[in-house]
């Protein structure tokens, strides 16, 4: 089974998105990609994808273990039914699975068991000074939500949200606690392969609302719901 590495929803996957495949004996050990360019072999495990046109592509790998393989879907695949083939390092296991290729397969990453949104806060002070703030902190070995504080009047806060499978969208909207906020940018994050970003300015009427739902909507279809904490 292959699903979005962000949402884990069963459904289509998109070119240039990060996907997790689950199975048995997919790798003889655990290994992570050491850097860029991504390898097409990790711990002996390789994978290919054959798209609906019959073209076969090698798959770039991010992580391999016995039960899971994380990989980057190649670009320029034909839409429609595709077949992913994973071959283990010892040659004993060959897993094939069908998957649907679509232009968009929206997924938002989360950071802990509370499903806190994988995001950063950009604070812009009245004089133009910019600072980056975290939405989680490590407390006793556990990642916990950091309440977002709007601070003094005149400070503007921008949410930088991270997902995958979003870049092919024609339109992205963001709803927080049932309120739409204006999305000023969406597309590839730029530093990490397969990672997408959406930027939106937060409105002060969110102050004091505590733990709220964050819903990204790409081409009128919602991604997995994540959460943020507001003070």
Description:
- With 231 residues, this protein is an all-beta fold.
- The chain folds into 2 domains: 100 residues, Immunoglobulins (Immunoglobulin-like, Sandwich); 124 residues, Immunoglobulin-like, CATH 2.60.40.
- Helices cover 0% and strands 49% of the residues.
- It contains no helices and 23 strands.
- Strands 11, 12, 13, 16, 19 and 20 form a 6-stranded antiparallel beta sheet that branches.
- A hairpin with a 7-residue loop joins β19 and β20.
- The model has no long low-confidence stretch (mean pLDDT 96).
Provide a compact summary of the structure:
Helix content is 0%, strand content 49%. It has 231 residues and is an all-beta fold.
Keywords:
single chain; 231 residues; mainly beta; Immunoglobulin-like; 2 domains; 6-stranded antiparallel beta sheet; 5-stranded antiparallel beta sheet; 0% helix
- Per the principal axes of the C-alpha atoms, what is the gross shape? elongated
**CATH architecture descriptor name of the largest domain:** Sandwich
User: Mean pLDDT, rounded to whole units?
Assistant: 96
Q: What is the end-to-end distance?
A: 40 Å
CATH-defined topology of the largest domain: Immunoglobulin-like
Outline the fold blueprint.
Elements: E1 2-4, E2 18-22, E3 31-32, E4 41-42, E5 45-50, E6 56-58, E7 60-64, E8 68-72, E9 80-87, E10 94-101, E11 107-108, E12 119-124, E13 130-134, E14 136-139, E15 142-145, E16 156-164, E17 172-176, E18 179-181, E19 183-188, E20 196-201, E21 210-218, E22 221-222, E23 226-230
